[in-house]
Amino acid sequence: MIDVRLSRIVRREGSMQQWIFLAERNGPRGFTIVIGANEAEEIHRVVTHDDTTRPLTHQLAFNAIGALDGFIKQVDIVKLHKNTFFAELVVGVNGSDEFKRIDSRPSDALALGLRAGCPIRVAEWVLEEARTDEAGPDPPPGTSEPE
Predict the structure, then answer these.
(1) Confidence class of residue 51 from pLDDT cuts 50, 70 and 90?
(2) At 85, which CATH number?
(3) What is the pLDDT of residues 74-129, one digit of tens each?
(4) Contacts of 132 (CB under 8 A, 6+ apart)
């Protein structure tokens, strides 16, 4: 597994498809994942530390894990099949050495993992298969790119 980081969020107003770019932590490789608008907004909220007045779905899930004395250990992107990425949220319980791997869409796992500040990893073969370039794709016209 290769450690990656969220390098870029590309939000396109009025479009249901948004983009995130994940880059290898200690190398030049990276790849793009197309995600939904709600997930892109949540990831943007986490990155910009923008709180909502009431918990939204990802915040609720994160709070529920914590309330059950659990924690998110890592996010693993484990598979790419027919242009669809598959991820696993690795969750543990405080005081236990046992971890559960929960099947997840990468966007949901990233929204939770970024909130937890945990490592994000990708299988080597997935990174090689999905690899684009270090800078990521050019944003489409009409795109806003918050930093």
Answers:
(1) confident
(2) 3.10.690.10
(3) 999 999 999 899 999 999 998 899 999 999 999 999 999 999 999 999 999 999 99
(4) 30, 31, 32
Query: Is residue 30, in this structure, part of any structural domain at all?
Result: yes
The CA angle 45-48-49, to the nearest 5 degrees, is 75
Question: Looking at the domain assignment, is residue 147 inside a domain?
Answer: no
Question: Which domain does 33 fall in, by range?
Answer: 2-139
Averaged pLDDT score across all residues of the chain = 86
CB atoms within 10 A of CB 63: 12
Within-domain flag for 144: no
- Rounded to an integer, what distance in angstroms lies between the CA atom of residue 79 and that of residue 81? 6
Number of domains present in the structure of the chain: 1
List the one residue out of 29, 41, 125 whose CA is nearest residue 85. Answer: 125
Between CA 80 and CA 129 the distance in angstroms is 8
The secondary structure of 24-92, three-state, reads ECCCCCEEEEEEEHHHHHHHHHHHHCCCCCCCCHHHHHHHHHHHCCEEEEEEEEEEEECCEEEEEEEEE
Residue 133 banded pLDDT, cuts 50, 70, 90:
low
